[in-house]
Amino acid sequence: MLAELDALFRLGWRGMVFIVDDNFIGNKRNVKKLLPALADWSERHGRPFSFIAEASVNLAEDEELLDGMRRAHFRRVFLGIETPVKASLKEAQKGQNMRRNLLDSVKKIQSYGMEVMAGFIVGFDNDPDDIFERQIEFIREIAIPLAMVGLLKALPDTQLWRRLEREGRLLLESTGNNTDCSLNFVPKMDATRLIEGYKSIMRAIYSPGEYYQRALDCLERVVATAPAARRNGIASDVVTLFRIALTGLWLLIKKFDDLFLFFVIKGRFSAAARMVVNRAILLPAIKPLGNGVSVNIKDLGDLVNRESPLAQKNGVCANTDRMRRMRLERRDEILSFLRCQRRNKSGRGFHATFIQSA
């Protein structure tokens, strides 16, 4: 993980970094080993980043862990609170949310300098008729500005999915979006009432007055003990994001094939050549190895479609027998042929120059 931070630092990123893990504290022992190293890295690099993570509510029970996250410069944490109704928490098998008061847990985490974001769900079988008002009041009291509220969805191969399937209540597969006001199962509550109640929650908690009041209450509770992460200007951030995107694209290409083809294109491609290149038949075939033997292929279409043996030139020999068997769809043979060309005496390999047929 520190190597990834080194890479981000070199690329110029400064600001928030999201540590992607469904539960950052799932393995507390390992996390407690990581946090001192992370704090030391941050100090040595001038605190370039602040961190966000996902965790379970029982984070509030471990002061050593909370202190370590504060020292490592964690500024936000996302919790799966789900609901203030204990019967619904039991239904969702969220036992860790039932062991202590949720409001006290959130306040405890906020006191260590971390803003709490949270997910909430309506649509459990055990939700009471007043669940919508209770969720609004709870989110208000708990002072969480960024509250992600969604409708319950049954996802394939989960206990909820299997139970609803046994009960004959499944309707269709989930859209994957729990905020689109759709249901993929028959709820215990009237479906129309459930959807309209969900909409009422969203209208209430994100009305300007409600939202800004929660933000102000949150600021009073979150005790910042360290300066914010160093930030660059907007222009610098845009350049950095572009560089990160290019780096990611390069790594993605390398993942599919560690060899790359260097094309020096003179003139225009023939129709066959354009077709081959567009279909990425030869793109990953050859890694550029610097100045070497130049292989002129007069017609790329002939290479893959017709009997066109590669002329022997500068010690590079074509395997004409194999060339006769090559067809456009036989990509593996083409790649194998190109990779097996004999190197010249310098050992530097070759690059291919494709030119239009005379």
Write a concise keyword list for the protein shown above:
pyruvate-formate lyase- activating enzyme; disordered C terminus; globular; 358 residues; 2 domains; 14% strand; five-stranded parallel β-sheet; 14 helices; alpha/beta
Structure description:
The chain has 358 residues and is an alpha/beta fold. It folds into 2 domains: 2-152 and 187-221, tm_1862 like domain (pyruvate-formate lyase- activating enzyme, Alpha-Beta Horseshoe); 263-355, no CATH class. It is 42% helix and 14% strand. It has 14 helices and 8 strands. It has helices spanning 2-11, 28-44, 63-71, 86-91, 102-110, 131-142, 159-166, 191-205, 208-221, 234-256, 271-278, 300-305, 320-325, 331-339, and strands at residues 15-19, 49-55, 74-82, 115-122, 147-151, 263-266, 293-297, 350-355. The strands form 2 sheets. It has a 5-stranded parallel sheet with strand order 1-2-3-4-5, covered by helices on one side. The chain has a 3-stranded parallel sheet with strand order 6-8-7, with no helix packed on it. Helix 3 links the parallel strand 2 and strand 3 (74-82). Helix 2 (28-44) runs parallel beside helix 3 (63-71) and helix 6 (131-142) runs parallel beside helix 8 (191-205). The two termini are 55 Å apart. The relative contact order is 0.09. Residues 257-331 and 341-358 have low confidence and may be disordered.
Can you summarize this structure?
This protein has 358 residues and is α/β, with parallel strands linked by helices. Helices cover 42% and strands 14% of the residues. Helix 2 runs parallel beside helix 3 and helix 6 runs parallel beside helix 8.
